[in-house]
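Why does residue order matter? Because the sequence determines the fold. Keep that principle in mind as you read this record.
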Amino acid sequence: MTKTSTDPVYSARLLPDGEPFDAAAGRPLLQSALQASIFLESSCRNGSCRSCVCRLASGQVSYRIAWPGLSAEEKAEGWILPCVAFPASDLVLLPPGP
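Structure:
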């Protein structure tokens, strides 16, 4: 989906020191990040390769596919796939790390 004039626009930020960027509800988070010159690892852009996986520190996302490539446990721990995750509120993201 693409952004329409009726889509809410939220603020998203990638920690530890990222600048906030606009994240439209009608656009996958990865697309919004790239439009704002925020680089996130990615490959397949359909939720299967998991290269874009990030942890949600705060906020909510929604998915428009039944299986976004994450287990129930990973979702419960806050992991998201920005390539298929749509923002549903302001967001703070943590990159994957050790």
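The mean pLDDT is 90.
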